[in-house]
Design brief:
This protein has 16 helices and 2 strands. It has 444 residues and is mostly helical. It has a two-stranded antiparallel sheet with strand order 1-2. The N terminus and C terminus are likely disordered.
């Protein structure tokens, strides 16, 4: 690949007014190339995911083994994400992303070869799943931060929103191509295509160049100077001492446990109280996806996202979820589901922007590593908690109670923070005690 189409950096004139276009990050040539690479990678990944569970069932004949393979792949994120984030902080980001993508490609090619030769057994499958999970603990934060490094800080929400759109487009494309590939070439073709998509990303990464004023320029010196002096423990301590990040974790956690799992709650609501079928739930899923795309576009327009914005949107989403739980018909549910998905998507984009820009450059990998472990806990704990709630209160009750819990918890947290912020603190400067503005104001 020639370096000329990517290495050239196009930046808007310094005097140009600040843009709020959701596509403003695509003004930079490297960001356009990175978006194309991510689309290819997401399409390949979803081709593989579409056939993966069917492959496990084909090999083992056991649904329990299918669930175990998913747990084995997710376990590294729970246990060693903090170490993966530390590696991202210590190693050159572009090299880290390129190598991790190449390793994931190698795993996909190895799986494709074993499937084609009919040599893939349960033990090998579990080992490959574990290796994929380990590499992903480094690849995830490396690729996320690399994309942000390509644009100025004010355009990071746009980069994240564009990434969400690319993810959705890649998911739809990959799922469609999986059926074609498997029908004509067999299951191994989906894995081989995924391997090629990883290699494509790895080949693009070396040619990416940050725009003028981007984090890739401003944060490099700080990372080089301080990354070696910070341990994983200090990264954890930074997260624990940062009220803004703790507030974001609380908002996201309560939303993840009592909401979000709509493939579970809405499926039960549609097929149960609303007396719909698989087709009806498919319509609901389509509306959810459409709302997510609209929300990603709106979220990309944000310039200065905050935890307060994330909390307000999450509380609004909780109230919409509670109203959706009371829907008397499928038509009313569809009307409620669209804004619910939009609000959730904007909240996600804003929260991701805060998470990836609030920490100093030399700690962002560690923060994403901590977040990866926390997110895995939510992912594992949310469905069982909602399942128990539905057993006790039914689908409607779970949606209403969950939505009200989300809104009430966020409102209570906001009131407590406001009360604490009004309490004066004192700072000692040169032996003189002076009143100070509350330091926790950054949690807003």
């Amino acid at each position: 690949m020639s370096s000329s189409p990517v290495s050239a950096v196009s930046a808007p004139p310094a005097s140009a007014p600040a843009s709020r276009s959701p596509w403003r990050s695509l003004r930079y040539r490297s960001m356009r190339w990175w978006s194309v690479a991510n689309f290819v990678s997401n399409a390949g990944t979803w081709m593989q995911l579409t056939v993966q569970n069917l492959l496990v069932l084909q090999i083992t004949g056991s649904a329990a083994a299918t669930g175990l393979s998913m747990s084995v792949q997710a376990a590294p994120a729970l246990l060693i994400s903090v170490f993966g984030g530390a590696a991202v902080d210590r190693w050159p980001r572009k090299l880290t992303a390129a190598v991790s993508q190449a390793l994931l490609g190698a795993v996909a090619f190895a799986t494709a070869l074993l499937v084609a030769l009919d040599r893939l057994d349960v033990t090998t499958l579990m080992v490959l799943a574990a290796v994929t999970g380990v590499v992903a603990t480094v690849d995830g934060p490396a690729c996320s931060l690399l994309g942000n490094d390509l644009v100025p800080p004010e355009d990071v929400p746009s980069a994240i929103g564009v990434g969400a759109l690319v993810h959705q487009a890649g998911r739809l494309t990959g799922a469609a191509l999986a059926g074609v590939a498997v029908g004509f070439l067999g299951t191994a073709a989906a894995y081989a295509a995924n391997g090629l998509s990883f290699l494509f990303v790895a080949s693009v990464v070396p040619f990416l160049r940050p725009a003028r004023g981007a984090a890739g320029h401003t944060g490099k010196a700080a990372r080089d100077e301080r990354a070696d002096s910070l341990s994983v423990r200090e990264g954890l301590a930074f997260f624990a001492r940062r009220p803004r990040l703790l507030a974001l974790a609380g908002v996201t956690g309560i939303s993840a446990v009592f909401g979000r799992n709509y493939q579970l709650t809405l499926a039960v609501l549609v097929t149960g109280p609303l007396a719909g079928g698989a087709g009806s739930f498919g319509t609901v899923s389509t509306v959810l996806a459409a709302g997510g795309i609209v929300g990603a576009v709106l979220g990309a327009r944000l310039r200065r996202p905050s935890v307060r914005v994330v909390g307000a949107l999450a509380a609004a989403g909780g109230l919409l979820q509670a109203v959706a739980g009371l829907s008397p018909s499928l038509a009313v549910l569809l009307v409620m589901v669209l804004p619910m998905a939009v609000v959730e998507s904007v909240s996600d984009t804003a929260g991701t922007s805060v998470l990836q820009t609030d920490p100093p450059a030399h700690l962002r990998g560690r923060v994403l590593g901590v977040w990866g472990s926390i997110g895995t806990v939510w992912g594992l704990g949310g469905p069982p908690a909602l399942g128990l709630l539905m057993e006790l209160a039914g689908a409607r009750g779970a949606l209403v109670a969950g939505g009200l819990i989300i809104a009430a918890s966020i409102a209570a947290g906001h009131l407590l923070h406001g009360r604490r912020s009004k309490e004066p603190t004192a700072l000692r400067a040169e032996d003189a005690v002076v009143p100070a503005r509350v330091a926790l104001g950054t949690a807003a």
